Amino acid sequence: MKKWIAALIIFLTCISSSIVIGQTSYQLDLENSSLTVKGTSTIHDWEMNVEKFKGQMVLADEDIHGLMSGSLAVEVNSIKSNHKLMNKKAYEALKEDEFPQIVVDVIQVSNQSSKGNAKVVITIAGKKREITEEFLIIYLENGGIEIKGELHLKMSDFDVDAPVAMMGTIKTGNEVQVAYSFVYKKS
Question: What are phi and psi of 64, to 5 degrees?
Fold first, then answer.
């Protein structure tokens, strides 16, 4: 009986070791990544750049198809335009005091050569939505991975009221585009 228990422990140790060995962790390289939110208003188009975000993913065998987990967190107060009033209105609309981060959790990825589809859960202002979007994959010579794409979201899907200014004469459109270029490096 003792030999059987010892053999079982050795077997389980070997299996768990092989699972860990086959995984590769990646961290988002903020210096080489970009995230921009674009939209419209009754007066002009607008753009806000995100300055603080972090992300990670774990892949099996260094292939995006083998995604085991992935997430991204955006600091709401780091979403900035060149206009202080616009920033303030955006933070209020996103309920930054109560929900200081926008969070994206990757559920599933499928890919065919340089294109892929990701099913993600996005949490904005406390409201979760599951979406599927297409993206481009570039395997870098240094072993890193670049993921590029553009999400098309509606503020109303997250119960976010479109910001207004000048007593309602300036109003942002409901739809926004989130353009991203994420460079991940092995950690």
Answer: -60, -30
Residue 167: which pLDDT band, with cuts at 50, 70 and 90? low
Q: Torsion-angle region of residue 62: left (phi > 0), alpha (psi -120 to 50) or beta?
A: left
d(CA 167, CA 178): 27
pTM: 0.82
Least reliable range by pLDDT among 40-49, 151-160, 178-187: 40-49
Fill in the amino acid letter for 31: E
Alpha-carbon distance of 15 to 9, in angstroms, equals 10
Give buried/exposed letters for 100-109 (b at 16+ CB in 10 A, else e). Answer: ebbebbbeeb
179, 38 Cβ separation under 8 angstroms: yes
The phi-psi region of residue 159 (left if phi > 0; otherwise alpha if psi is between -120 and 50; otherwise beta) is left
How far apart, in Å, do the first and last CA atoms of the chain sit?
42
Distance of alpha carbon 87 from alpha carbon 107, whole angstroms: 31
Alpha-carbon distances, residue 139 vs 68, 147, 166, 184 (angstroms): 18, 9, 47, 10
| Count of residues in the chain | 187
